[in-house]
């Protein structure tokens, strides 16, 4: 990944010294029975660090989620408590550990053809328009970007839509970029191998055409076809750090990602999307996301579907 930005004013430092154990406010009531003591000072330090590194804003109600995910990491590292873990994050060895921290705290909920109206719009509106526009071009260019691709179901869905909607796709210079901040998810997307039940969201005709069943370690898995893999390039990327790609993109899917950013972070990312989209290019957001009050560079053309103006 590109270098981490320099800490902004107010960036987190080492958690303050441990408070007296007889202080009744030191540990929340929900902490009873925890394996590791996890106080607000630990949570505040980690929240500040993840915001600095990835622009992710974690609300106070996420405390239990943060504890649960990082407690597993403490066990793996055989670290005795969160004081020691926070010290590790600040040490010279911490540069490697912050990658595990980001991976642990980013949410990776995804599915094939999730929010299917977006893929219907791509197949029925966007791709026919592009085909008509480039009818006389010998090798027309087509670029899609799955920004925040998680484990890869979204870019593979895009690839299925392209391959089934453009009969002469081999004539096209078509590519799908898939990026995610979580390096474990990036590797999963590259492999294109999923639990068998994950394929139930794929329409039967496309499932038959573009996937196959394989056995791995005694389990039945769903493997993506090589023709889909050839369309996709998967890379790690932090959306709040410099972007190496130049565009332009015909459509960008960034769904259920912006909800984790604060307002300045959302504004920054949306404006960069605008600059990388072609004139009239499309931006697809998640079901709970909106550009209202964030950007004037787009007009809404459908449910969470925006077109660059």
TrEMBL record:
Keyword Transferase: yes
Catalytic activity: L-glutamyl-[protein] + S-adenosyl-L-methionine = [protein]-L-glutamate 5-O-methyl ester + S-adenosyl-L-homocysteine
Keyword annotations from UniProtKB, A to Z: Methyltransferase, S-adenosyl-L-methionine, Transferase
Coiled-coil boundaries: none
Annotated spans, Disordered: 1-29
Gene3D superfamilies in the record: Chemotaxis receptor methyltransferase CheR, N-terminal domain, Vaccinia Virus protein VP39
Assigned EC number: 2.1.1.80
Pfam families: CheR, CheR_N
SMART domains: MeTrc (SM00138)
Record keyword DNA-binding present: no
Broad class of enzyme this protein falls into: transferase
PANTHER family in the cross-refs: CHEMOTAXIS PROTEIN METHYLTRANSFERASE (PTHR24422)
UniProt-recorded name of the protein: Chemotaxis protein methyltransferase
């Amino acid at each position: 990944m590109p270098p981490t930005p320099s800490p902004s004013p107010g960036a987190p430092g080492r958690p303050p010294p441990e408070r007296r154990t007889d202080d009744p406010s030191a540990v929340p009531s929900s902490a009873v029975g925890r394996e590791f003591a996890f106080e607000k000072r630990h949570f505040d330090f980690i929240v500040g660090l993840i915001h600095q590194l990835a622009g992710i804003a974690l609300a106070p109600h996420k405390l239990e989620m943060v504890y649960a995910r990082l407690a597993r990491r403490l066990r793996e590292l055989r670290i005795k408590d969160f004081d020691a873990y926070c010290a590790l994050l600040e040490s010279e060895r911490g540069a490697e550990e912050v990658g595990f921290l980001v991976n642990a705290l980013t949410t990776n909920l995804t599915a094939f053809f999730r929010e299917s109206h977006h893929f219907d719009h791509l197949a029925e509106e966007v791709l026919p328009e592009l085909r008509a526009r480039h009818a006389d071009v010998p090798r027309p260019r087509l670029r899609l970007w799955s920004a925040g691709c998680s484990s890869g179901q979204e870019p593979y869905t895009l690839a299925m839509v392209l391959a089934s909607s453009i009969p002469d796709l081999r004539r096209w210079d078509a590519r799908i970029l898939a990026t995610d901040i979580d390096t474990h998810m990036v590797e999963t997307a590259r492999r294109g191998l999923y639990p068998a039940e994950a394929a139930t969201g794929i329409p039967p005709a496309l499932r038959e055409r573009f996937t196959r069943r394989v056995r791995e370690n005694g389990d039945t898995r769903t493997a993506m076809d090589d023709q889909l893999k050839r369309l996709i390039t998967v890379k790690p990327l932090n959306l709040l750090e410099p972007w190496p790609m130049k565009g332009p993109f015909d459509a960008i899917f960034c769904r259920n990602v912006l909800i984790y950013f604060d307002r300045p972070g959302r504004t920054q990312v949306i404006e960069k999307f605008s600059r990388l989209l072609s004139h009239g290019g499309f931006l697809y957001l998640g079901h709970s996301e909106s550009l209202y009050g964030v950007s004037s560079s787009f007009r809404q053309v459908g449910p969470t579907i925006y077109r660059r103006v």
